[in-house]
Amino acid sequence: MTTIVIIGGGPGGYEAALVAAQLGAEVTVVEQDGPGGACVLTDCVPSKTMIATSVRKQALLDGSSLGVNFTGGADGDVGGVHVDLPQVNERVKDLALAQSHDIAARLTAEGVRIVKGAGRLVDPQVVRVGDETINADVVIVATGATPRVLPGAEPDGERVLTWRQLYDLKDLPEHLIVVGSGVTGAEFAGAYRSLGSEVTLVSSRDRMMPNEDADAAEVLEEVYRRRGMNVMGRSRAASVKRTAHGVVVTLEDGRTAEGSHCLMTVGMVPNTSGIGLQECGVTLDRHGFVQVDKVSRTSAPGVYAAGDCTGVLMLASVAAMQGRIAVWHALGEAVQPLRLATVASTIFTDPEIAAVGVSQRQIEQGEVEANVVKLPLATNARAKMQGFEDGFVKLFCRPHTGIVLGGVVVAPRASELILALSVAVQHRLTVDQLAHTFAVYPSLSGSITEAARRLMLPVTSAVL
């Protein structure tokens, strides 16, 4: 029987463990925080739970366009809609713990041994946890990553915060300054603005989310500004200091922004130092990420890695797939290498932004030849009924074969709508096949089949 030890119990670790156990391996998961890891306990699950509350409140505030009106107000709450932050945070924490317990129960039911503690590699086939030494035929490193800290802007857990410290706040921040306008910054900035905080978003680039689809980022920034957010472009933070009643963020050009709290969202650093990786022959890049190939192998024989510690698209779905691929390869099962071109991603803003496959940037830079169609969500009948005006569906296909190469969806529940495009990209479907698929009328998904029909027309009719 093959013995597998997994260091880290996040998506990359516990999904690998489940597959390994089902294939008959003897599996041990070493995790210091709890099954599910940071993803479940402090990051993805808590943040999306809180965002769900903010989306629900924003829907109430936007209800006037559908004839739902609120009168009066309490304690200055807009429209009389009150947010009980301690209750919100309690629900966030309870849900995260419940999810962790569910994962633990599933692992135990499959015969996986869970060891609480910090694992360290002392040999490519030996892991030490405290005083215990565990021998393994295969080791999978899935230790995740930690919020990056900028010198001069060290979090104190009270006024200067990482996103892992938000759920201990007793009161809604009066004015939250979010430093960093990537995916995490954009998500939290939008959530707290909808919950009722004044929000300033500090972006070092000329627009928020510079690595995402430009059309999508433009839509979201317009929505944020309309909701009253102060978006500061080309503004790199130099330091964050506490004041008597809040914080002051000093920018590199000398300007300052003052608020009650500051949330730092400036990237992640891998949890790879001090756990014996390099000493055992595992190669790290200059940022400390574990170097892996398409089947999750590291440079050390018998040692694999998965998840955020590899720096390969920091998504829970990618971590889970890396972990599964590692197990399949290690146990000699049939396996397909990780194909990043088929990975779907979502930004859980309001509206959501989801994408899969090639990007508009690749097309514009001549890396990929494609026909493009973009349909505004406002023309969709269901969107009109629900009062959704912001967003679009964008579809890319090959000019001659019509094979779907990718797409972008900006809409409520774009995370669900993107599945149709993911299936198309994964299985190399054509726009003709999409176009001939029945969509419910009225539905937001109808815009996907409509976009496909547009791309069946001559090339001259495709519009950017």
UniProtKB/TrEMBL annotation:
Keywords: FAD, Flavoprotein, NAD, Nucleotide-binding, Oxidoreductase. FAD binds at residues 48, 119, 308. Pfam families: Pyr_redox_2, Pyr_redox_dim. Disulfide bonds join 39-44. Binds 1 FAD per subunit. It is an enzyme of class 1 (oxidoreductase). NAD(+) binds at residues 180-187, 267. Residues 343-452 form the Pyridine nucleotide-disulphide oxidoreductase dimerisation domain. InterPro entries: FAD/NAD-bd_sf, FAD/NAD-binding_dom, FAD/NAD-linked_Rdtase_dimer_sf, Pyr_nuc-diS_OxRdtase, Pyr_nucl-diS_OxRdtase_dimer. Homotetramer. Belongs to the class-I pyridine nucleotide-disulfide oxidoreductase family. This is NAD(P)H dehydrogenase (quinone).
